[in-house]
Amino acid sequence: MIFDLELILDSIPQMLMGLGLTLQLLFLSLALGTALAIILLLMRISGRWVLAAPAMAYIYIFRGTPILVQIFIIYYGLPQLELVRESILWPILREPFGCAIVALSLNTGAYVSEIFRGGVLGVDRGLKEAASALGLSARQRFIYITAPIAIRLSLPAYSNDVVSLMKSTALASTITLLDMTGIARTIVAETYAPYEVFLSLMVIYLVLTWMIQRSFGWIEKRMSRHVRSEI
Amino acid sequence: EKLRVGMECTYAPFNFKNENGDLMGYDVDVARGVAGLIGADLEFVCQKWDGMIPALLANKFDLVVASMSITDKRLEKMDFSDTYRISVGRLVGKKSAGLKLFDSTDKPIPANFADLKVGVERASTYADWFKNELPKANVVLYDTNESLYLDLVNGRTDMIMTNPMKAHLRFLSKEDGAGFEFVSPQIDERKYFGIGVGIGLRKGNDELKARLNKAIKTLTDNGYLESYALKYFPFAIH
Amino acid sequence: MEVLTGWWDDFFWGSLVVVKLFFVALILTVLFGLIGSAAKLSKNRVANAIANGYTIVFRGTPEILVLLLFYFGSAIALTALAQVFDPDVKFVDFPPFWAGSLAIALIIGSYATETFRGAFLGVDSGQIEAARALGLSNLQTFIYVRIPAMWRLALPPFGNHMLSLIKDTALVAIIGLEETLFVAEQAIGYTAKPFTLYLVVGAIYLGFSTIITLTVMLCEKYANRHLEIAK
Amino acid sequence: MSDNQQDVIVQVENVDKFFGDFQALKAVNLTVARGERVVVCGPSGSGKSTLIRCINRLEAHSSGRILINGHELTDDVKDIDAVRREVGMVFQSFNLFPHLTVIENLMLAPKLVRKTSKTENRELAMEMLARVKIQDQAEKWPSALSGGQQQRVAIARALCMNPEVILFDEPTSALDPEMISEVLDVMIDLAKEGMTMICVTHEMGFARSVADKVVFMDQGEIVETGPPATFFDSPKSDRTRLFLQQILSH
Amino acid sequence: MSDNQQDVIVQVENVDKFFGDFQALKAVNLTVARGERVVVCGPSGSGKSTLIRCINRLEAHSSGRILINGHELTDDVKDIDAVRREVGMVFQSFNLFPHLTVIENLMLAPKLVRKTSKTENRELAMEMLARVKIQDQAEKWPSALSGGQQQRVAIARALCMNPEVILFDEPTSALDPEMISEVLDVMIDLAKEGMTMICVTHEMGFARSVADKVVFMDQGEIVETGPPATFFDSPKSDRTRLFLQQILSH
Ligand SMILES: Nc1ncnc2c1ncn2[C@@H]1O[C@H](COP(=O)(O)OP(=O)(O)OP(=O)(O)O)[C@@H](O)[C@H]1O
Ligand SMILES: Nc1ncnc2c1ncn2[C@@H]1O[C@H](COP(=O)(O)OP(=O)(O)OP(=O)(O)O)[C@@H](O)[C@H]1O
Ligand SMILES: [Mg+2]
Ligand SMILES: [Mg+2]
Q1: Which ipTM value was assigned to this complex?
Q2: Peptide bond into D171 cis (omega under 30)
Q3: E179: part of which helix (H) or strand (E)?
């Protein structure tokens, strides 16, 4: 099979027009999802059953079902309910962009909160005890000792999650959004040439992945100055 | 001889599954009728619309009997039999909206399409029509026909363009579609909608194509096509 | 719920497709993971480079894109390959089931590669030295010391991979394999009740996820039985 | 409070401690006067750590009373914080905050707990680092220091809160042999300056030369208490004798 | 081979070892006769572990010769395996296989290396467990044992291969003080039975009472060698004196 080079050169700029949308989806849902994750984390480690149980149930459901199904429920399913269509959220849920942001954020929140929890659990108990022995209050211990150490511990897993979120944005193409994948699928449907188009798209996503990983590698290095390199 | 037939399986009443899981519809009947005449066994393959032609070219199946219109663009990549039904499109919108979209000569008035969202299926002839005739229109692309109706009802789009027979049967005549009506005349410009719907096949299968054409002629002449249509519509559609 | 009448059996067969996909892909995933990690840990530079390329491509590309490429590309690639050996071959078909399971296994296998690699590295080098000091050969050390120690470490992250795997099966609806999500779409075409039907799919997947989680818990308990007595 | 009682800094009265069903402390009594140096020893699992963790309320005791400088340790948060300010603690595993430099480790608690000014804290910190002879390491990360240096920083960190009493839980047992003496030297200096100390340790040389009182624990009980001379040379109980034999034999 | 040479079990001749640019062993010479007990000591990083790891070829030396029972250690795999069967090794961190029970730990190497029968291996294993006085723990997981017990299992595991010489790398330094003597007792018993041993340790009491020869290393070199009496009481080199002072001061 001979590749149609002209088509590749033609379609890459077209697909890149969707890059903006892909990045918007990524950054917006990353910010919202991380905020949600922190709330869920605080609920889980609050030690209060009424807060911890809903957070656990939430995490369980969102990690236990495919994100594609979550997107479909939110986009096609929710508007079936009168309640939703009359709520103040309707202006957001009416738009496919809003639905994609909501779905991606809700999903990421569940995953990231577990990552943060792992980081918090990874903080050496001795350090918290040393802080108590010095007279720091529970809140001070969390802010000055647990959080900074937990963030560094969570960073590698968090960067993985950013990459999977970036990949999940491609699913927005299933709810009419013309992100990079949406544009690519349209080009394929018009040109009937999937290989050229999808392979070029794959390269674009790989570059994005690479950039995300490099950025996090840099951040991690900066945050690990205090860890001896030979260990 | 065994022939694999690609179709969406979600495009009622042309090709769809009922609650018992039986494949049925006008396309299915045509395919079965043709197979009977040329003496072939059929195997149906369900395939999403936007991959229909790539899948045919990749030899996932041998025939497309999926309400696919014969267009020049498609003919560049594949071959078609003679038509077994007509191909037209029509816009559906809200009854109360009072839309005036076409002038007295049935030409669209581009200005009146501004600010309106139109849903169509990705890679359909309708999408082509909009792209060329109304390039400024706000077109939203869907993966399945069914989601067109869902989002029209949800208010995410102001109108949709689709096959009028299907729209009538699956939507306008149902409870959901009560508040909606056709808001355009029939659009059937040959340039986009071609000469009608045919059976698609890979190029270079002229012998098969000849047999298909002969079978379709027989079905037409002997009134079979009409009887298939009357199962779903109150009129013939070929 | 009466909208579901008549569709239950379709959901059952759809679920069966999911289960079959899951097991086939699981076996392939373990295979790819072991081969990949062995290649990464080996000193052979070619094997290293191939394994690195493999994990970069499959971890950096959206799953939906891999699946589409595989679905469209596999038959053509396979045909081209077959024609090298026998020019008369017109077409080699690659059934969607196998395209789907292979694509999913390649994706998850790239994650498993990293997991297994980390687990092999996590095996206390003291144990390996003890085995060598006792005169065990490299192969014996691998089978009797490294694998048993490795699988205990690999199990928790591998459990997560199994969850991703089951959820990725939902994506094969995009290539038209008749699993639960595809059944739901057909049913929606008939009933116009997307909310109910997508919820059913979500519930089915939640069930699968629960079963996997419980199974992994049991396996972990077994793998860690030697640590239980210790506090 | 009578004059006599004022001199008592730590008073442990009939304290029990349960972990679930397991009793880690059994009716423990201990009085430590201002300026007194107490060494606690005993086999592993005998409750030494539990005892001093209760004194600092890192664990809550199950029954009995613990008084620090006259304040009783209860669940009342205010009291605990007040008490913790008077009690410093040094751990076996140093527990320096890895994300803070040495001097930041020392300045954190004064800033958050005492809310004193930054210059003041820095001065204090440098003074304490000098006291443990390590002022030239102030700007390093803890991980860049040797174990002995880390433990000296940990002692300086405890000193920064100007505690009435310092608790040590096996401060030298995670150290390489050559580093043990540098930490013991610092502790001996502290003792000479009159600091009140309770120290869990197996360094019998240290106990002999520095302690005013040696306490031997076994199975959650205090089995024997006495000045080092009597304790080492004529232990009363068999259990003590056996333990000393094991410890000193090699 | 002359009669005289036959009595030499381990011969290290002029051995250098480089890690990259760093020289961990510098022209080391050491001869160990059958039945001899050698204690190696020296500060951290002086190359003690490196030396005995080279003797067991867990590391390959960079130049010079090492002979075990007359076989030279080279890259030739067959020879290494043959040599390893004659050299047992006990590590600081025990390194028991955690997924195998105590007795399975002991039976694994005989099964895989000697290919002897299961009953035979089990008998041998029980015998060795008896030798380290721990036969009642045979069916437990290693993690259920105390450190001292684990180290005794590790010794028994090495004994199961019936080695000519056993190497110990700080076998007691990961242990709690009370457990040290139980392990040292087992080692003393082995010594009494005439086992050839090379032992890296800081337990000077053990060295004094058991060793035929004490070797002091510093910065990759053997600085001083001698019988314990001379070594401890009149060390020749300044470096040795300084080291002994630090180790014995507390
Ligand atoms: N948080 C806890 N939960 C349950 N049991 C505990 C806990 N902390 C300590 N114990 C138990 O209490 C007993 C006393 O422990 P403690 O740590 O005080 O002993 P120790 O004398 O300090 O021993 P070591 O010399 O090993 O440090 C031990 O049996 C221990 O297992
Ligand atoms: N694999 C290695 N790679 C690089 N350097 C090493 C390696 N192993 C040891 N070294 C270095 O060789 C030197 C000697 O190390 P060795 O472990 O033999 O010392 P040691 O005398 O056993 O010390 P310790 O008492 O701390 O166990 C050290 O400086 C160490 O950092
Ligand atoms: Mg303790
Ligand atoms: Mg060493």
Answers
A1: 0.79
A2: no
A3: helix E177-192
